[in-house]
Amino acid sequence: MNIFRNSYLLLRYHQVKITRLGNMNSYYPVSIIATRSIADDVSKKLVFISKSTNIFENLALEDWFYKNFDFENQSLLFMWVNTPCVVIGRHQNPWLEVNLKNLSQNSVLLSRRNSGGGTVYHDQGNLNCSFFTSRDRYNRKYNLETICGSIRSHWNLDLTISPREDILLNSYKVSGTASKLGHRNAYHHCTLLVDVDPSLLHQMLNVHELGIQSNSTPSVRSPTLNLKACCPEISVDEVIHILGCYYIKNSPLCFKGFDFVTPSEENFPGLNLIKQSFSTWQWIYGKTPSFSLCCPIGDQSSEIKIQVLNGKIERLHFQDITIGKQDALRLNTLLVNQKLDSELHGVISNSSVFGTMGEDRFSKLNEILLTLCLTSV
Fold first, then answer.
1. Is residue 45 within a helix (H) or strand (E), and if so which, with residue range?
2. Does the pLDDT at position 112 exceed 60?
3. Are 174 and 224 in contact (CB under 8 A)?
4. Phi then psi for 9, rounded to 5 degrees?
5. What per-residue confidence (pLDDT) applies to 249?
6. Positive or negative, the Cα torsion across 31, 35, 37, 40?
7. 232 φψ region: left (φ > 0), alpha (ψ -120 to 50), beta (else)
8. Which of 114, 100, 56, 93 is nearest to 311 (CA)?
9. What CA–CA distances, in Å, run from 91 to 98, 142, 197, 276?
10. pLDDT, tens digit, for every residue of 47-104?
């Protein structure tokens, strides 16, 4: 009987360049990597480590594994580290979660992942772990216990799992968690704060309150702690090694070593298209659930309500405000159906509309609009 499922036959023609410990230039067809344990025990485990530190490449590779691998009889731990970036959940609002001004000033990238959950800051002191299995064998608690067990066994740090399934150390959060469950495959991924820059973390996530009303998923703010604060000798590289070995060790049938992978179109056909989709303004900002906010006008008793849909100003409501038809037309022409992006920021900055209507009276509206337009990709 054919042990390959027809839905995964496409894997037989893909080829991935894998760098392995002890053999630096080995080539393995994806069909071998993705199905080499099909005839073996269902607990077969693989460890892949990304050689990229680009958030869009790593999110794309994670998505590629999810869409293209057969996890019916095997599991995968994919570990990756990024240069400074902020990652929001699929159903979140970046204007509520991220300080866009600080983001831009520090050249920190913003991305939106495919899974739910809250906002996290990444840098090279933060380890990302993605646990892939079939949908039937998805077990988030087991994955978290694997992380806690590996850290506890080597560094004797008393990590615990909270009711929200965060990992805690001395009541401080050291890991957040999210997941994506499909028809056949599933993954659970989490961060691990090893030696993150706390100053940049707070700068990126310390948001200026704009009074936004939204049904987007809010982040649950928690005090955080680096593992290094309690264990000075710990490092990301060591955690990768210890966690990877601990994960493989739980499998009675495992192959030796880790696979170091380079996310590229050559190695993973179709990856560039996934990467491009993750890095667009439309995905990062345009996927934001609809929201609104009210801007005070003049003496604060009057206000303009701005409705935003897909990252664009959908409508202006003039509430309890005396404004001439000509001024209302000017504002609508300037703003409605416009994306909240750098282009609109420039248009507003160079426009004489607010001066014509009375600069002092509409100064708060002008300030809020410019803040909303501090988006970049």
1. strand 44-50
2. yes
3. yes
4. -65, -25
5. 80
6. negative
7. alpha
8. 93
9. 14, 26, 26, 19
10. 999 999 999 999 999 999 999 999 999 999 999 999 999 999 999 999 999 999 999 9
Helices (H), 189-324: 198-205, 236-249, 271-278, 281-284
Say if CB 243 and CB 79 are below 8 A apart: yes
The answer to whether the CB of 204 falls within 8 A of the CB of 171 is: no
Helix (H, G, I), strand (E, B) or coil at 215: coil
Q: Hunting for tokens 């409605």 — which residue is that?
A: 336
pLDDT (average), residues 356-360: 73
Measure the CA–CA gap between 179 and 142, rounded to whole angstroms.
13
Judging by beta carbons within 10 Å of its beta carbon (0-12, 13-18, 19+), is residue 147 exposed, middle or buried? buried
Q: Convert the pLDDT of each residue in 272-283 to its tens digit.
A: 999 999 999 999
Q: Are 293 and 210 in contact (CB under 8 A)?
A: yes
Per-residue confidence band for 296, with pLDDT thresholds at 50, 70 and 90:
confident
Residue ranges of alpha helices (H) inside 88-197 are 94-97, 100-105, 140-155
